[in-house]
Amino acid sequence: MSNTIFALRNVHYAHAGKFPALCGIDLTVTAGEKIAVIGANGTGKSTLLSLLDGLIFPDAGRIEAFGRELTEDALQDEKYAQFFRKKIGFVFQNPDVQLFCPTVKEDIVFGPLQLGVSMEETLKRLTVLAELLEITDLLDRAPHQLSIGEKRKAAIAAVWAIDPDIILLDEPTAGLDPLTTRHIVDLITLASSQGKTIITATHDLHIISEISDTVYLFDKSRKIISSGRPETVLADDEFLKKNNLLHIHRHEHKDTVHSHPHLHPDTP
Amino acid sequence: MSALSFFKDALYADAYALKKGFLQSRDPRINVAAILLLIIAVLFVRDTAVLVWLYTFCLLLAACSKINLLFFIKRTWFFIPLFSLFIAVPAVFNFVTPGHPVFMFTLLHHPVTITREGLSGATLFVMRVATSVSLVILLSLTTKHTELLKVLRILKIPQLFVMTLGMCYRYIYLFVEIIEHTHLAIKSRAGTNIKHKKGREIATWSITNLWIRSYHLNNQVYSAMLSRGYRGEPQVLHEFKTTLRDWAWITAAAAISTLSFAVY
Questions:
Q1: Do residue A97 and residue B236 have CB atoms under 8 angstroms apart?
Q2: What is the value of pTM for the model shown?
Q3: Do A45 and A38 contact (CB within 8 A), yes or no?
Q4: Domain coordinates of chain B in residue numbers?
Q5: Least crowded by CB within 10 Å, which of A209, B82, B134, B221?
Q6: In this predicted structure, which of A45-49, A84-88, A203-207, B150-154 has the lowest mean pLDDT?
Q7: Could you give the dihedral angle defined by the CA atoms of residues B14, B20, B21 and B24, in that order, rounded to the nearest 10 degrees?
Q8: B221 vs A97: CB contact, 8 Å cut-off?
C-alpha cells in the first residue's frame, strides 16, 4: 500500500481568481515526513497549507489526498470529510483566528467533539495536552486575555487535541520569545518522533534543521525553486540572500560597524 | 476616546466575576433563575416600600459578592436616568397624573402642580427600574460571560445562536484593540487638532477599514472551524455542578419573591 499522503500536480491558485498565489506546484508528501516550506513573504506558503487542508481548492492542477482527489465535492461526502479532518490538523498563522471560542478549554475540546470523539476521551486529551503545553492555569481564561505565546500554545493544543496524523503549521514561532520558541520546536519534534507527518511554513531558519528533513524553497514566481536536505539548502548563502531569507546581523566592533550573515558553523 | 474607554471598562469588568464571593460561588444556572424570580417580583410589586427592601437586598447580595458598593451604585445609576427620567418626570405633574397637590409653581404663565399620586407613581417607577437594572448588572458582574452563554444553552436557546453570540463577544475584544490602535496611529501622526470635516473623513476610513478586516477575519475563522471538523452543528462542552447551597439560594430567592407578592 502506498504511503503517499499528498500528491500535487501542476497546482495553480489565484486569490479572488486574479491575484496569483501559486503557479504550478508539484509536490509529493509521504507519511512520517518532516517538511519545511520556506520563502519570502507573499510567495504562497500559507496558500499551500490552506490547499493541503482542503480549505481552498486549486484553480488548475490536481491535489490528491489519501489516494482521492481533494475537491469541494469530495469534502461534501460526510464520511470522507470526517476521515480527512481527523487525519489533518492545521495550526493557523494568526492564533486569534483559531481561538474563536469563549475560553481556551472550549477551544481545545472543539475539534475532538465535532469529530465525534467521546466526551471522556476529549477531556482526557485536554488534561494531557494542558500539562504538556503548560497551560493548565489558562484553560478557563478567554483568548483575549492571553499573550501571543500563550495564544500560540492554546492554538497548538486545539489542533493536537484532534490527534491528527498530519500536522500543518503556519509560522508557528513567529513573534515568540526564545523560550516559547524552544518549547514549540520541542513539541513539533516530539510529534514527529511519534510518527506524525509535519509540514511547517516558516521564515525562522534557526529551527529548520530541527523540524524538517526536507526543505522546499518558494520564490516570487510562487513556485518551488529548490528542495533538498536542510543543511544543503541552508548552506547556499547567496541563494538565501536572493530570496530574502538570509539573516544579516549588523553590529559594532569598537569604532566600526560591520554586517555578516547569521551562521551556525557547528551545525552538522 | 472616552466612549471607547467606557466600552472597554464595561467589557473588561471580569475582575468581579473572578472573586470568591457569594454569587460567584453559586451555579450560574441557579443564579440566573434566582435573579429572574426576583426581577419578576420587582415587576409586579406595586408598593414602593417593598421595592426599597428588594433594592436593599440586591445591595446586600452585591456586598456579599465582594463588589465595591460605590462602584456598583455608580454603575447602576448611570443607566437608570437613561431608562426612566423621560418617562417618570412628566408623570409627577397634574396634567399627566391628577391628584392631591403637593407643590405648585408657574411655568410660562401656566400654573403647574406636582401631585402626591404623581410623585408616588414616579418613585415606584424609578425604584422598579433601579432594582431591576441593579439585579441584572449584579448578575453580569458576578458571572463570567462564558458561563452566561452556557446558561443560554441550557435554557434551550439554539446552539448556533449561542455560539454566534459567543464569537461576537470574543471578537469584540479584538476589534476594540484594532479601533484603539487605529486611533493612536492617527493621533501620533495627525495630533488631536483635527478639523470636523477631516475628522469625519478619518472616522469613515476607520469604519471601512474595520469592516474589511472583520470580513477577512470572518472568512478565516470559518476556515479554522471547518479545519477542526465543524459541519454546521456545533458540539460543545457542558459542565455545571449544583450543590446544596445552590438549592438553598434558589429557595431563598423564591421565598423572597413570594413574600414580596404576599406583602403587596
A1: no
A2: 0.75
A3: yes
A4: 15-144+237-264, 145-235
A5: B82
A6: B150-154
A7: 60
A8: yes
The answer to whether residues B179 and B206 touch, using CB atoms and an 8 Å cutoff, is: yes
* Residue showing cell 498563522: A93
Q: What's the rounded Cα separation, in Å, for the pair B185 and B166?
A: 29
The one-character DSSP state at A103 is S
CA distance B125 to B110: 27
A237-A240-A245 Cα angle (round to 5): 125
**Residue A77 neighbours by CB under 8 Å, 6+ apart:** none
Contact with chain B for residue A164, Cβ under 8 A: no
- Decide which of A241 and B32 is more confident: B32
Decide: A157 and A130 in contact? Cβ < 8 Å: yes
Q: Which three cell numbers stand for residue B169?
A: 463577544
**Collapsing DSSP states into helix, strand and coil, what is residue A226?**
strand
CA distances from A267 to A14, A34, B95, B141, B262 (A): 38, 18, 91, 56, 84
Please indicate if any CB of chain B lies within 8 Å of the CB of A142: yes
CA-to-CA distance for A42 and A251, rounded, in angstroms?
29
Interface confidence (ipTM) of the complex: 0.86
Contact criterion met (CB below 8 Å) for A151 and A180: no
CA distance A34 to B257: 65
